[in-house]
Write a structure and sequence with these properties.
Layout (H helix, E strand, L loop, with lengths): L2 E3 L6 E3 L14 H29 L13 H11 L5 H8 L9 H8 L4 E4 L6 E6 L2 E6 L2 E7 L5
Antiparallel strand pairs: 1-2, 3-4, 4-5, 5-6
Length: 153
Amino acid sequence: MAEKKCKYCAMMIPRDAKICPHCRKSQDIAILLGGAVVFFILLLIVGLISTITENTSSIPPTINQSKKYTPTEKIIQLGKLHPDWPLKTREAIAQGRVEKGMSPSQVIAAWGQPQRSFKMDPKGNHQYWHYNEIVLYIKNHKVFEFRKKRRPH
C-alpha cells in the first residue's frame, strides 16, 4: 500500500488517510484552503461595506431626487436643509448651475458626485473634479475656476 508523510508529525501514513493515526491531525488541505478562502471573502465584503458607508457619509444631505420639484420648491427645500447657504447659491443649485465660490458640498448638491477627482495635495486644498465636459478646479475648498475639457488633437 502507498504511503505518504503526515504534514504535521512527519510519520508515514496510508496515502488515502484523511486523519493521521499518530497525531490525529486532518490531512485534507482542501478544508484548510477552503476556510482561508471563506475568511478572505468575508474580509473583502466587510471592507467593501465599510468603504461604501464611508463614501456615502460624506455626501451632503440634498433634496429628494426622485420627486419632481419646481425651482421654487427646490430653493425652499435647500433652505430647510442648509439655512446657512446664501439664497443666490440655493437658486443656482436648484437650476443645476455651479458658480465660482461654491463649496464642494454645494457642487455635489447641484451636479452630484464627480465622475473623477484628483487631489493635488494631501489636505485636499487643491482638487480637480471632472464632470462630462467640464473640469472644476477647487482651491481652498471653494470652486476657483471651471472650464471645458480639452480634446486631444
